[in-house]
Amino acid sequence: MSQNQNGTWVRVYPPQQPRPSNGHVAVGGSDRLCLNPKRDHKPENYEDLQLEFNPLVFSSLEHYLPPHMLHLSRDVKVQYMRNILLRYLPESERIRIQKHKEYRQRIMLNYPRLHKEIYSMDAEKFFTPSFLRAIKENTEASFRSIMAEPCKGIYTFEMLQPQFCEMLVSEVDNFERWVHDTKFRIMRPNIMNQYGAVLDDFGLECMLGRLMSDYILPISRVFYSEIGGSSLDSHHGYIVEYGINRDVELGFHVDDSEVSLNICLGNEFSGGELFFRGVRCDEHVNSETQPGEIFDYSHVPGHAILHPGRHRHGARPTTSGNRMNLILWCRSSAFRELKKYRKDCSGWCGECKRKKKEKERLLVMATQQELMKREMQSAS
């Protein structure tokens, strides 16, 4: 199962539409995207436009426009991409998004911020020196120099400075007190977490956008290109809280993201380990765990764990104290659009990969048996 923006867990079935033979993906009418992006193209800036979608979505999708459109006016490109996006966003969803914008505006107009300095990106004060050096060098070698890969596709590393963790925790506590005192009804991160807060909803959206685009995207380009890591263009950032009078554990699930960042912010606690059980596509999300896919992770304050959103996982009970984590779901609209027309997930789904290998093994065995049969017949 996966979770949509409403916090509902759903099983997603890709539409059955044929892939055209001319190298484009048809999405209805004359609106098409190219399967292969033009990476050296510099997209337009759409931040000044009032549109239904995040401006980064348009900048990301522009790489996938047909070549003849890349140098047309911005208005033409906006209309073209908007037509594509609206085919997958019904009227009810557009109304929900507008109401959510109004909800955020009410919070930001009334909530008194405690630590104003964390609402804009200050890398030197937020991140550890080792992490900043790796990002500045921006090479696979520099990333691997600060990372461990305890399980294939899962990376752990030291990331946040203690002072920033403390300020973010106290900001969330301050927000929770304001919610309680004003009796303001807020939306929780998802239906599985009854405690915690959506950071985007009270002013941290821009800072988290920078976190994704400037610090997570360079890493995901290297390690997650096959699952949309090169075209991350939107995010969902939130805090989860576990412990006494909070959530205790988190059930087995997959995230509504291409790449997920999970950072422990601290507090004294025990338990709460994450457990991972393999990457799966929608069709195989409930399939059995294979040997080599089992991995458990114990949280360390200030340390991050980065993994594919489709990597099945959960959290064991927090047995004492309180734990707070920052979660950033990073998404790629281009990957989600093109995934609907690609049926082969064997490049990243563990079960698809296993079935493909098994099919190849059986084919080799059948070929060997046929050759042996022919040799025996010729010998006789």
UniProtKB/TrEMBL annotation:
Residues 231-332 form the Fe2OG dioxygenase domain. It comes from the Eukaryota. Its cofactor is L-ascorbate. Pfam families: OGFOD2-like. Keywords: Dioxygenase, Iron, Metal-binding, Oxidoreductase. SMART domains: P4Hc (SM00702). Residues 1-31 are annotated as: Disordered. One of its GO terms (molecular function) is L-ascorbic acid binding. This is Fe2OG dioxygenase domain-containing protein. It comes from Psophocarpus tetragonolobus (Winged bean).
